[in-house]
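Regression test attached.
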Amino acid sequence: MAVYTEVPDEALGAFLAEYDIGGLLSYKGIAEGVENTNFFLHTTGGHFILTLYEKRVAEADLPFFLGLMEHLAARGLACPQPIRTRAGTALGRLCGRPAVIVSFLDGVSVRRPGVRHCRALGSALAGLHAAGADFALRRPNALSVEAWRPLFSAAEAEADRVAPNLAERTRQDLASLEAGWPRDLPGGVIHADLFTDNVFFIGDRVSGLIDFYFACTDAFAYDLAICLNAWCFEADGSFNRTKGQAMIAAYETLRPLEPAEVAALPVLCRGAALRFMLTRLVDWLNVPPGALVKPKDPLEYDRKLAFHRRVNEAAEYGWSG
Amino acid sequence: MAVYTEVPDEALGAFLAEYDIGGLLSYKGIAEGVENTNFFLHTTGGHFILTLYEKRVAEADLPFFLGLMEHLAARGLACPQPIRTRAGTALGRLCGRPAVIVSFLDGVSVRRPGVRHCRALGSALAGLHAAGADFALRRPNALSVEAWRPLFSAAEAEADRVAPNLAERTRQDLASLEAGWPRDLPGGVIHADLFTDNVFFIGDRVSGLIDFYFACTDAFAYDLAICLNAWCFEADGSFNRTKGQAMIAAYETLRPLEPAEVAALPVLCRGAALRFMLTRLVDWLNVPPGALVKPKDPLEYDRKLAFHRRVNEAAEYGWSG
């Protein structure tokens, strides 16, 4: 949570002069966003978010992310909509960083989602997959199964410092997932990081999906597996099948899963858990001195992996056909 | 710049239920505020700032600060106005911290104030002093001349690590200021920390004064001396007399300085500079490991002190009678 780049008022004023969103009334750095610097922006034209992309986001990917948000917003999905300058460009530069202004979305992230939130999320996820169906650009998932072994190599030697036998467990997961990873599932644009902090609610209604900076082209059911991991485990580490059932059933109201997806759900859930365990493990072992961001606990996903290893079929996640 | 306390959505929802400001639409932690945690808060009733007081603000002082903001806002000063609960209290508790909701003020802090900003600030400062005249509560200035020697004691042994001969210079300043500090100047409520980041502008107009957590009862001209220090020096360390002249003249349009205040201005400016040099020096030498806030440079005020030591009369700050 940090503002990595300070933006002086003069620089912002000059930047805003390119846009048709009125005069500056206020802006405040937001203590959110691990990868980027975000400002809450109020102009005579409304409320916006100003994002400066820091070095962890590849500039070459920005046309995909911004184009996707425009595409989704145009189809009625509640997501940040990039604002274009009078010259027609969405991506600008501010204080030496790529920068963009997007529409502000109301809503609150739910820290402890209930069954009703999981149900609403299932619908929203299916809506996202449908809205992205005719998006022309493609971006491979840079954090899918091929990426896990190189990630693990960066952490293998020190993994057992984090938890006993973590290295050996991970070697077995890797071998198993690499051998059995499904390749031909229905796919398209997925969010790939739809944790609770990226979903806004007003009451029980999803009012916005944000942070599309891991979005990519991959299997739809893998996105669902990421959400089952992120939303349906309890604080004590147990999987709440009622929540899983609500999420999957709501998803299937808009897009029923195909038999191959149902069959693959356990391996997809295990793979999704391994992906987040690995990136967290690497971050955990490489906290830079003076870091402004506290790393997330890789062992939360080590515990989820223990559950997934014992799962045999989609019904254990709440799928009821 | 930091959010020291995370506020879960459930806790905030319960807190807001005590107020008559409508339903929660969104809240975001603001990466501002060295002492407190601040959230931008949007409800169906409007925009607000939610502040949680962290340990550096003494809870016993909060009735003074909140009462003062209510008093000033009631007299038309553009400052945050504490919102009262249905039960009539302004000060609540949230996540174990004293907490308050205040009105949101538009406006932008000017990093490099021009002459016109200094003029506007002079008027706003005189307006603040007038609006506070009939405020009943009193709070001694805990960072006035009596506090400087104890502050220096905490830093004296290591001061020369920060700049050569800083300790000796400071001993001489302390002796001189303690001997010559003026005692009977006109006074009342002063802001005591009116740096550029605590003043909002929309265009050339002051749209808000914020952060009253150093406000106290002291000499009005000392507040002016703090502002001359904070607003009228250039990046190269030189004092800009045109800016000083604009600030003082605008102040005097509402409240002409008395002869004793004019005579005391050089010593007040030197004292104000010493106060900020000392608190910054102590913070500089005591940065806790993992600190989220970068300490401010004490040497900026060491350089200002060098200027003040050579000043003989108020005219050198731009006073023209």
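Expected vs. actual: identical. The radius of gyration of chain A is 20 Å.
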